[in-house]
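User: I'm curious what two different proteins look like when written out as structure tokens. Can you demonstrate?

Assistant: Sure. I'll show them one after the other, since each token string lines up with its own sequence. Here's the first protein:
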Amino acid sequence: MTHTPKKRASDEGKDRVYIFDTTLRDGEQSPGATMTHAEKLEIAQLLDEMGVDIIEAGFPIASEGDFRAVSEIAKRSKDAVICGLARANLKDIDRCWEAVKHARQPRIHTFIGTSPLHRAIPNLTQDEMAERIHETVTHARNLCDNVQWSPMDATRTEWDYLARVVEIAIKAGATTINIPDTVGYTAPVESAELIRRLIKEVPGADEIIFATHCHNDLGMATANSLAAVEGGARQIECTINGLGERAGNTALEEVVMAMKVRGDIMPYRTGIDTTKIMNISRRVATVSGFAVQFNKAIVGKNAFAHESGIHQDGMLKNAETFEIMRPADVGLAETNIVMGKHSGRAALRSKLKDLGYELAENQLNDVFVRFKELADRKKEVYDEDLIALATTEAAEDENRLVIKSLRVVCGTEGPQTAALTLLIDGAEHSTEATGDGPVDASFNAVKQLFPHEARLQLYQVHAVTEGTDAQATVSVRMEEGGRIVTGQSADTDTVVASAKAYVHALSRLIVRREKAGKDTPEVSYKDVS
């Protein structure tokens, strides 16, 4: 039985642009951005609640874990179309359908590389590839009446061949044609013209939706996506925070806010509740381990900050002097109310809710205890501190390794030492270790108690707020046998935050090891089918 995608009340009219979020599929392909099953379900729910039209939940053939996640997201979805990715072969497409068929509105997204470089990989002639496209799109359409087809590396595909295969896909039953700029090669003027020409010259093109999928290798993903819409595309593929391979994908928050703010020259609308942007941005940053750069448009820490005296004076007189949108438009609290040790549980719950965090009672209790501990160490507790507490609680909730106590000795006279007590699956273990500095000593102590071969790829420290008593947020990225994991933690003691982030990453590595043992070897969308 097929499922007919339903339209929301605001979908009518040519000015409607559909938002296709691929954070859970393309975004997760960033090295180290792998999310747990629970995290995928949480992000999918947040995407659905904010009004994303289509959620690409994963690549079902990749692994049992991916299949389970896509299937569960499909069962839980409320309003969004749930989409799975499949290469151009029947096995992939069947597996994809098995995962998404539980959704109220399922979609199969199948693709094949059409540029000369990509055609050479499976060693197919143009005619052989055209036949495969017809066969696989037809098969997908026989299973599901909502089928998307993509010619990977479309912007480097010869025009005549691109037009030919797009026509074949439309005749085979594709309802959406996505035009990917897979390597971030095109420019805005080309992006608009390509879509415009396809719609004008390909038979049947006026009866389906064209989509755009841009990468940011040359820093033009947002501009290229908006140009494609100007050319006639009515679906933008994007990710939260621009997460994705290499330089990332088109950032959802950028295209959505650009169309909202500049409706005078871009008369298009989306179904996105923009007040939910900041919350999901923070959550994706936490679960992926990829911090948002301070000067990132829309969601960066400095996006609404003003330091110049002229700017500050203008802002005090009229906020519109130097701001084209209000912080509240993207869900950012306009006032940073300071909380202290006398603030109660109800005040904390209310403040966290304002910041986009609705915690269960047991989670609130844990955060409240940590809030009181922080308030005793810090005179003032700001919004950023509370966000760090909430995200750290979520990150550490499922840790297999937990630091019970850590004491370090450091200074100008070495060696620096660390005395550590670590809980490993609930069992207590203790040791002492030395190192080149307190962080190195702490990491060495962890390694003594939990031996591993993981290599530290990244170690970053960020101050959550200003002042010498500020919390430090630490991010680490580790690699072992091709598996890349990230860990995060926050504490007013940078060494403690570092050690907690390190064991958080190791806890995630344990999960990846066990997952690898249960799953068949993972398949990449780049593997030739």
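Here's a second, unrelated protein for contrast:
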Amino acid sequence: MLKKYLQTQQDNFDIMRSRHGQLQQKADFEQQRAQLLAQHIDAMESNQQMRCSLSLQNLSGLKHILQDMAQQQQQRSAQAEQEASRQQQACSKQAAYNLALQQILDNRLQQQLLQLQRREQKQQDELAMQMFQRQRAAL
């Protein structure tokens, strides 16, 4: 029964690891998007290249919008990283739990083997005692 439970927990752990991998990929993707957005903002034309005040206003407004987007993207990236980190912690806890279950199973098996050895030794001792008593009685 405990063996089935351990297998179920191991299956859960495998699902959790898979989910962690997905979350880590998402965090990496979000970080990459934030970097690309920052590069795009940095690559925009500088104020010195603009001749018209309307163009300067447009550029300034666009940069402001893009900087807001970059900030939002950084927040999304941080959230994705936190979620991946939480999943990693859950995986670690599940792995420790599975290890503890495995140790319990191993201990039970060891106890059963020890009991079996004791029974066999007791039977052998009884058999040897009977043979000794028969030999003594035959003399």
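A detail about the second structure: The chain has a mean pLDDT of 91.
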